[in-house]
Request: fold
Amino acid sequence: MYKLWQKLAAEFIGTFALILAASGSICADQYLHAGGATGFGILGVAVAQGLAISLMVTSLGHISGGHFNPAISIGFWVTKRLSTIETIFYWAAQILGALAAAYFLAAVLPDSIWRPVSLGVTNLAPDFTRMHGMLLEAVLTFFLVFVVFATAVDQKGAFSKIAGFAIGLTITMDILIGGPFTGGSMNPARTLGPAVASNQWTNHGVYWVGPLFGGIVAAVVYDRLFLRDQPPA
Reply:
């Protein structure tokens, strides 16, 4: 049994890796464009984040559950699979990991590269309203948390074999769908880290309300429908 500080360290490292991949890939794409080369676009950004999550869940999921996302942790809390104190600490570790990654990129990358894209902070498309943004983020996060519960919580699922792969594919799918419209965050920490480091707060509330709501609904739905015979320990 791992201690709480070990779980928090895993959440910090995993979230750091996710934001490093998310913001770093967007900055790398910007760098390629600035140099006149063809960037890898949304597909590359989606794959980078999907790979990061796959690797981190596979590496650290057995320690902390591999949340790396307040929207996932709140799903565990609302279904009583994580205590209130643990949830608060998980959120703190995730936010600190996101901040550390964002400030690391701001420190090592040229200002001319990361400032034009605000470190890859998520924002809404010009013709996309905040309500539409919250709804899309909620639905995208619903599928993410649903897959997490199906593979990492359900004892009849396939956690030991394909959880990291399945969760990574879900992240990739969601970004390919939502990236052009909302940035495909699905994770308040993913948006908060770059927002703080770049001081860009436009439509920031969308990325808390939408993902947290979607995460709660997904967790409750899976718990009530499919985990009736697996109550929380």
